[in-house]
């Protein structure tokens, strides 16, 4: 007769509690007492701040639309499916479209996210669970410092320092794994380094601090009771992380990643410096070049001498605006969905 | 520091004035063709002290030299040049905000009409003061000298020629061992006068092979784009098998290998001399003092020893319609620039004017009223 194995019945598993929502305490419990002047002023300020943000977003959207429509009516191509070279010199018959910008933007941002997310998770877990207290503080500041480096510095560093350094690896990938579409020879030269490969790595470094900071803040709030309970049941460090910290902090980690994705989608100067312009179509290879929405607009911004020409680029900006909006909404939905389950 | 500068300027002005009085006493103010440089000596320094101009970034450094030399020859004179781009320069000139404009291309009819109105219904003149040769920088380990023809160049930048050991290139370089590596053409991805002139050159010199037209945006259909001249230099430096077009000054500074152009009479390397030879053979579109160059003829030219690929930038001035003070200052600046100002140009990647153009320029400058 065998003694019952605790793992069979899962008696040892610590079931993660769902994150308790903040207790809602209404600040005007009765609603009948005379509202004092200070309350009224403060309430008014808070309300108008909230309204101002919404008004600002709506105003930006309306402005983009208002400037984009005249240019769109003069476009000779399908705005959503045309991916070739933009020709905006003859403003009566312009050729522009966002298909390729969209693909490059999404591709480079996702690549950066795929690189940054595991690293950020590791850093956050290390800082909150493994690192000695004396080390955790300074290390966290160092990570945050990454966010303070201007993006032009990242761009120059990426093209002049990082690209030559990773060239042997990039060439090796292209030579040996070139049959796989991600490593196929693209429309920019692998040796030159002005590719999505280089840009994605730089972008990953740039979004790392945001994801790490958010994940760290959430992980550190894991209820001590849960951690201690897990330890009491004989869980190892890793098991504690797996059974308490991760389930508790997953939604925070995901929303941090989405914040990072938002930054990656809108990153401009670093990508403008690194990514090479291209003449051939984008093919979903890491060794392609191209423009993202933001870098395309930045590259032409000095030539905006005509409202229709500028309008073409503003139309692209409008698509980026909608894309970022959609990503943020999705992230919000994902996070709240996680919280309920 | 400022005080001492002013003091020195005053001193020099005083001595220059004394000299000018002496010269005037001799009744001679003709100094055409004199290449020597004597501070305050043979320059015509009348008119207003300050001039303003705006436009092409390509001539910015040359204007810097002209301004320095003008200040030396005519103490107290200063030109403030705002390098905002050719289009902006012409707009500012037409609306009367600046005294003259710098532009990479001649004005179109509409702009010319506006300029004429600005000049009290007198035509504006194009004076080709600054020539910037465009280098074909390449990165090909082991190949010290490379020659290309306009046709092969068009082939490379349209994607018709993709490998360095293409028969067309081998035929042009019989003494070189060209490797079997892919060619990476590098173009300017921002809109640029250099791209415009490069494409105009190909359209004029290799009309069969280049049918993509011209314009400030590259239309070739092959290669990868880099931002600004510095970006081209960087891309060519790090990419084996790359070839790109960039102003001579940038290529020289970076120590890049530069290809020679074979227009049919043998390869011509890019030097100050070969560029000067090409300019000397240039012809003007019209007669008179509006010195618009016949670029097609310059680009398609096959004269021996001439390097034809270059950026021509104009200074656009009023023929008449300035106030007397201003007209004298514009005359003074242009004559000094065309004459004394040419000395330092070679070292910063421009071409010193050949005598034939200089004579025409000085004559035109003197005719401004």
Automatic annotation (TrEMBL), chain B:
Entry annotated with the keyword Magnesium: no
Alphabetized UniProt keyword annotations: Phosphate transport, Transport
One GO-annotated biological process of the protein: phosphate ion transmembrane transport
Transmembrane segments: none
Domain PBP: 48-335
Annotated signal sequence range: none
Keyword Zinc on entry: no
Molecular function as annotated in GO: phosphate ion binding
GO cellular component: ATP-binding cassette (ABC) transporter complex
Stated family: Belongs to the PstS family.
The protein, known as: Phosphate-binding protein
Protein source organism: Mycolicibacterium fallax
């Amino acid at each position: 007769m065998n003694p019952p194995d605790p793992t069979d019945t899962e008696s040892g598993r610590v079931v993660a509690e769902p994150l308790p929502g903040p207790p809602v305490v209404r600040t005007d419990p009765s609603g009948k007492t005379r509202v004092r002047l200070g309350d009224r002023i403060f309430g008014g300020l808070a309300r108008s701040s909230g309204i101002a943000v919404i008004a600002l977003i709506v105003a930006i959207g309306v402005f983009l639309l208002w400037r984009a429509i005249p240019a769109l009516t003069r476009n000779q191509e399908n705005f959503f499916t045309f991916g070739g070279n933009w020709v905006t010199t003859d403003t009566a018959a312009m050729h522009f479209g966002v298909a390729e910008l969209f693909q490059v933007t999404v591709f480079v941002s996702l690549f950066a996210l795929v690189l940054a997310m595991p690293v950020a998770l590791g850093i956050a877990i290390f800082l909150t669970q493994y690192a000695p207290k004396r080390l955790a503080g300074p290390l966290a500041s160092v990570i945050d410092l990454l966010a303070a480096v201007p993006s032009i510095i990242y761009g120059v560093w990426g093209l002049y320092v990082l690209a030559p350094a990773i060239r042997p690896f990039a060439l090796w990938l292209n030579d040996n794994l070139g049959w796989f579409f991600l490593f196929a020879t693209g429309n920019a030269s692998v040796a030159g380094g002005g590719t999505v490969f280089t840009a994605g790595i730089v972008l990953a470094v740039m979004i790392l601090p945001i994801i790490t900071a958010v994940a760290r803040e959430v992980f550190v709030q894991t209820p001590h009771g849960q951690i201690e309970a897990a330890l009491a049941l004989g869980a190892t460090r890793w098991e504690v992380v797996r059974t308490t910290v991760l389930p508790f902090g997953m939604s925070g980690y995901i929303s941090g990643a989405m914040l990072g994705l938002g930054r990656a989608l809108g990153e401009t100067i670093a990508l403008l410096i690194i990514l090479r312009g291209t003449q051939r179509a984008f093919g979903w290879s890491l060794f392609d070049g191209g423009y993202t929405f933001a870098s395309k607009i930045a590259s032409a911004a000095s030539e905006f001498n005509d409202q229709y020409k500028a309008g073409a680029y503003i139309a692209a900006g409008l698509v980026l605006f909608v894309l970022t909006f959609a990503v943020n909404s999705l992230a919000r939905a994902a996070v709240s969905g996680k919280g309920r389950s | 520091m400022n005080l001492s500068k002013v003091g020195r300027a005053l001193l020099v002005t005083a001595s220059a004035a004394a000299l000018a009085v002496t010269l005037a006493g001799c009744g001679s103010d003709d100094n055409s063709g004199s290449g020597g440089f004597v501070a305050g000596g043979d320059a015509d320094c009348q008119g207003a002290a300050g001039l303003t101009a705006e436009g092409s970034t390509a001539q910015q450094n040359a204007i810097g030299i002209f301004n320095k030399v003008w200040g030396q020859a005519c103490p107290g004179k200063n030109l403030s040049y705002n390098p905002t781009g050719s289009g902006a320069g012409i707009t500012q000139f037409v609306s009367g905000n600046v005294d003259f404009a710098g532009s990479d291309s001649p004005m179109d009819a509409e702009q010319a009409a506006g300029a004429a109105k600005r000049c009290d219904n007198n035509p504006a003149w194009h004076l080709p003061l600054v020539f910037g040769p465009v280098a074909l920088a390449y990165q090909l380990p082991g190949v010290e000298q490379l020659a290309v023809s306009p046709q092969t160049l068009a082939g490379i930048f349209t994607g018709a020629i993709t490998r360095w050991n293409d028969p067309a290139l081998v035929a042009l370089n019989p003494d070189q061992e060209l490797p079997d590596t892919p060619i990476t053409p590098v173009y300017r991805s921002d809109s640029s006068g250099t791209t415009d002139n490069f494409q105009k050159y190909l359209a004029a010199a290799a009309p069969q092979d280049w049918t993509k037209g011209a314009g400030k945006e590259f239309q070739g259909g092959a290669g990868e784009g880099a931002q600004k001249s510095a970006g081209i230099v960087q891309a060519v430096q790090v990419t084996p098998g790359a070839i790109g077009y960039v102003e001579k000054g940038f290529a020289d500074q970076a120590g890049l290998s530069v290809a020679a152009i074979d227009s049919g009479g043998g390869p011509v390397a890019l030097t100050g001399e070969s560029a000067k030879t090409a300019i000397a053979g240039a012809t003007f579109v019209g007669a008179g003092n509006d010195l618009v160059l016949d670029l097609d003829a310059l680009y398609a030219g096959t004269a021996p020893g001439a390097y034809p690929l270059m950026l021509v930038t104009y200074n656009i001035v009023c023929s008449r319609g300035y106030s007397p003070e201003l007209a004298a200052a514009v005359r003074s600046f242009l004559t000094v620039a065309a004459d004394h100002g040419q000395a330092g140009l070679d070292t910063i990647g421009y071409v010193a004017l050949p005598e034939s153009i200089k004579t025409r320029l000085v004559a035109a400058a003197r005719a401004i009223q």
